[in-house]
């Protein structure tokens, strides 16, 4: 029983968007990023933050912080710090868009991409394996039930469909 498989799939979509953001950053026409920034911000807000980070913060991290789960070190404060840093960067992106500040937007998107890539690497390779080792099957079953509740509340099928098709549209606009 895995409690991180779905989260890893969510990471893959986030990483796909990050690669796309980087293609927009490096595109000869720098106005493309500014004109599509609201779509990227919507994805980050609705999928990466409200959906994925909520499942981590409200469910997984809570279970991992129970006594005796994390044996040697506790990476969760650092993960939370990075989630908050990502939120600050999204606010900075919104301000840059409002001011039509292309250079500021390029810089912020680049920082966000770097932060999230490293964050996801740490979760996939350090935190998630700790969770798989440290949680018992009965705890994992309870955790999966809580994920399912969040997924139902936030309409997971709809959110996936919406942002997978937005990804294809944004990729198409680069051509
Ligand atoms: Fe995270
Ligand atoms: Fe994550």
Provide a brief overview of the structure.
The chain has 175 residues and is mainly α. The chain has helices at residues 5-25, 31-64, 76-98, 102-134, 137-153, 156-172.
Explain this structure.
- There is one protein chain.
- The chain has 175 residues and is mostly helical.
- It has a single domain (5-172), classed as Four Helix Bundle (Hemerythrin (Met), subunit A), CATH 1.20.120.520.
- 83% of the residues lie in helices and 0% in strands.
- The longest helix is centred in the N-terminal third of the chain and has 34 residues, at 31-64.
- The mean pLDDT is 95.
- One fe (ii) ion is lined by residues 7, 11, 52, 56, 120, 123.
- The site of one fe (ii) ion has 6 residues, from helix 1, helix 2 and helix 4.
Q: Pairing-aware structural class of the strands and helices?
A: mainly alpha
Helix content: over 70%
Instruction: Estimate what percentage of residues fall within beta strands.
Output: under 5%
Taken together, the total number of domains comes to 1
The residue-averaged pLDDT reads 95
CATH architecture: Up-down Bundle
Give the overall shape: elongated
The largest sheet, given as strand count, sense and whether it forms a barrel, is:
none
Q: In CATH, what is the class?
A: Mainly Alpha
CATH superfamily membership:
nmb1532 protein domain like
Low-confidence stretches: none
Order of helices and strands: HHHHHH
Q: Which hetero ligands occur in this complex?
A: fe (ii) ion
The first-to-last residue Cα distance is 42 Å
Which radius of gyration do the C-alpha atoms yield?
Answer: 17 Å
